[in-house]
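Reply to dn_fold:

You asked what the input looked like. This is it:
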Amino acid sequence: QAMQLRIDMKIGIIFACLFSLIAGECIEEGHGVNSHLICMGLQDGDLPDDTHHGHYHDVVFVETSLTSIPSNALPGVHFQVLEIANNPNLMMIEDGFLIETASPCHTIKLMANPMLEYFPFDDMDSFHSLQEFSMDSCNLTSIPSNITWHSSVHSISFTNTPIETIEANAFTLAHGLRSLDILGAADSLTIE
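and this is what came back:
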């Protein structure tokens, strides 16, 4: 029964994703602890989206045409996992993009966003429950100083991202940090 439920959920997610590719919107899938808000096909101007409210296990921005995710992108939406992946035009995530709803989030995954140059590290102060932060195959070149990582953060990873500079004290406030991976950075990486 559990296997059939997982298969049904995956089929539902696939149909929701295909529909949103055509419609360019955020689609709710699943219920309770297995609920998802999947945003596909979005274009600049589609956010903020205030049509969804409540708690989701994860919020996924995938295969969009967005060049930026604006401040307060999903007001009233709370989640545990944020995944922003495979967005070929995404260059920036604006300050305050999810600041009002960040508290329960424990995982942030940024993957295969090849133009992404700016992430609002100042917003990390709002992610009180964050445990894992990962950025893979993005275009960030600098990690700023004095990021307010909460003690709950135990894993930070930057892979296949051309980081040239890690500013002083970038990870000093991550008191619970057990794993820091910086792989595939620029050959000229400078640590201040």
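Helices lie at 2-23.
Hope that clears it up.
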